User: Which sequence fits this backbone?
């Protein structure tokens, strides 16, 4: 549904007198399949928005090619525009308009007739649970309501692909959960959804596949589970009395094991399967048990392995 | 066809938002009325004319051109607010015509300027101004062209500089010499030769002369068609340039 090869963009930025070149995106290859929620995970300044703006025809790439919903970005941006929806990071509603007015105008800009536009507006207002506020000015909305209007604006013309730039940033946990449901609903309706986020849990829970971006480059791509599996399996940490450690090491000799003062760590493929076996082996060897903890790698561990930094810190 | 449709969509939305805040009518009319009441009476002796009507014949067209220029030049501020709100970016990802994004807005500015001009003309009638309706309509056409041009320029510049802080001094710097050198408030009839020489290079000076001729009832004066032609050409150039700025793919 989206295929990019070698997308690049740099900006000339001025710092005082000095002119500097910021390489915002340095050669991005992406393959997004039809009907999936694809996530772009990366810290601030990674180049997520710049990539999205290129794909949405707002800025021209310096180099590279892209096909979106079958239309070529370079040779036919007009057709790309007809097939996509785009929701900017900073929102796009006007304080003094109402949600319904904005939606009707947006539908009409995409070519809908007046009656069709009104019907579409009513439908998405219903779908996004906005009917109640539809005729109030946008400046009176809460952050979550306003964000829902933004997204409704992006999909009113039923595009094949919709780009959502940080759809949940600034929302409280409950509104975020709601937004995730909305996004899953879009997928259920057959849309391909491309979101950016810097939330690990969002990428993990919501996205079918993700690409991790850092410093203008994609450092890893895959399903969240696959990426985590790739870097390391699960870690089981078993707490033991000091004098029981040698016995434990012997009993668990078939595992990859590291010993510490008061515990051992085992690298296993799947912790849920391994824990009962470990416990049984220790029990059989008569090793007195302390505590057992399972640590599953997070996407942050993936980011850490690929970039040497933690996403939480950057 | 698509251009017409898109332009009317943008225009209608902009008009709707404008009418929602009718305060602008008050603001837009209050100042010119002050000029009419407080400044114009000084003119009769200064211009060495015999009647009030004659003074207004000279002053009112100048005032209207002034409003058209300034009204247009400061429209860019509204656009910067729209840029900041993301409204422009949202329009630019749709297939809407880029020319329509500009024209819809500029036409709103033209309409509001003409509304303002009509109110001022009506008030001036109270002060004994007399003008033929066909001439008046041509004068309004001149005003429409001026405001179309200046608002397009303002939008184009706003898209380039993207910040109020840069737009305000820029527009003031442009507007001031244009104003002084066009004989807008006082005709340059008594100006020294060198000043008139410079003013000949100021397109707005031609526009003012044309508008004054129309108010004077001198439809056949070359000033009229020359002024209209110059303004029409400049308006087309300004619209073409500003529409390109709307289309340009930069942040
Ligand atoms: N118009 C521009 N001019 C100059 N530099 C720019 C411009 N747009 C983006 N950049 C720079 O490009 C880099 C990538 O920015 P981008 O907005 O794509 O990051 P991002 O991943 O979306 O970050 P965030 O999570 O903060 O939204 C940044 O260093 C940014 O400063
Ligand atoms: Mg961003």
Assistant:
């Amino acid at each position: 549904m989206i295929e990019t090869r070698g997308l690049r963009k740099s900006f000339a930025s001025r710092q005082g007198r000095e002119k500097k070149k910021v390489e915002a995106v340095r050669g991005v290859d992406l393959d997004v399949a039809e009907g999936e929620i694809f996530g772009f995970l990366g810290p601030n300044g990674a180049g997520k928005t710049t990539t999205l703006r290129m794909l949405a025809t707002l800025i021209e790439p310096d180099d590279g090619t892209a096909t979106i919903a079958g239309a070529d970005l370079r040779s036919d941006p007009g057709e790309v525009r007809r097939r996509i929806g785009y929701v900017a990071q900073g929102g796009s509603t006007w304080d003094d308009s109402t949600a319904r007015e904005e939606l009707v105008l947006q539908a009409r800009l995409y070519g809908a007739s007046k009656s069709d536009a009104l019907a579409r507006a009513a439908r998405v207002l219903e779908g996004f649970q906005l009917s109640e506020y539809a005729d109030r000015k946008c400046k009176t909305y809460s952050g979550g309501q306003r964000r829902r209007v933004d997204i409704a604006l992006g999909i009113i013309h039923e595009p094949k692909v919709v780009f959502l730039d940080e759809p949940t940033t600034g929302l409280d946990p409950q509104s975020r959960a709601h937004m995730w449901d909305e996004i899953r609903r879009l997928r259920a309706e057959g849309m391909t959804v491309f979101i950016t986020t810097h939330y690990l849990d969002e990428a993990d829970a919501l996205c079918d596949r993700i690409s991790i971006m850092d410093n203008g480059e994609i450092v890893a791509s895959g399903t969240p589970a696959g990426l985590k599996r790739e870097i390391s399996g699960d870690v089981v940490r078993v707490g033991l009395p000091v004098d029981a450690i040698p016995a434990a090491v012997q009993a668990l000799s078939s595992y990859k094991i590291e010993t510490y003062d008061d515990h051992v760590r085992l690298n296993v493929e799947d912790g849920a399967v391994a824990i009962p076996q470990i416990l049984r082996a220790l029990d059989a060897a008569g090793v007195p048990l302390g505590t057992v903890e399972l640590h599953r790698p997070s996407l942050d561990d993936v980011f850490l392995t690929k970039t040497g930094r933690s996403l939480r810190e950057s | 066809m698509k251009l017409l449709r898109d332009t009317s969509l943008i225009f209608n939305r902009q008009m709707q938002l404008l009418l929602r805040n009718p305060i602008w009518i008050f603001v837009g009319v209050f100042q010119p009325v002050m000029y009419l009441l407080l400044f114009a009476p000084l003119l009769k002796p200064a211009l060495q004319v015999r009647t009030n009507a004659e003074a207004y014949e000279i002053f009112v067209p100048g005032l209207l051109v002034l409003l058209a220029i300034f009204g247009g030049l400061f429209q860019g501020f509204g656009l910067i607010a729209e840029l900041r709100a993301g409204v422009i970016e949202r329009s630019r990802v749709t297939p809407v015509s880029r020319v329509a994004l500009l024209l819809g807005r500029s036409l709103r500015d033209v309409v509001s300027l003409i509304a303002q001009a009509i109110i001022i003309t009506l008030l001036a009638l109270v002060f004994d101004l007399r003008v033929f309706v066909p001439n008046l309509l041509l004068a309004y056409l001149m005003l429409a062209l001026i405001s179309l041009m200046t608002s397009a320029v303002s939008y184009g510049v706003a898209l380039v500089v993207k910040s109020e802080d840069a737009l305000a001094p820029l527009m003031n710097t442009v507007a001031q010499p244009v104003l002084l050198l066009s004989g807008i408030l006082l005709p340059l009839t008594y100006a020294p030769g060198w000043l008139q020489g410079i003013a000949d290079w100021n397109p707005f000076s031609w526009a003012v002369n044309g508008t004054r001729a129309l108010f004077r009832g001198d439809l056949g004066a070359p000033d009229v068609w020359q002024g209209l032609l110059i303004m029409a050409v400049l308006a087309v150039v300004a619209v073409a340039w500003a529409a390109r700025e709307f289309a340009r793919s930069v942040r």
Q: What stands out?
A: The radius of gyration of chain B is 19 Å. The first helix of chain B runs from residue 2 to 20.
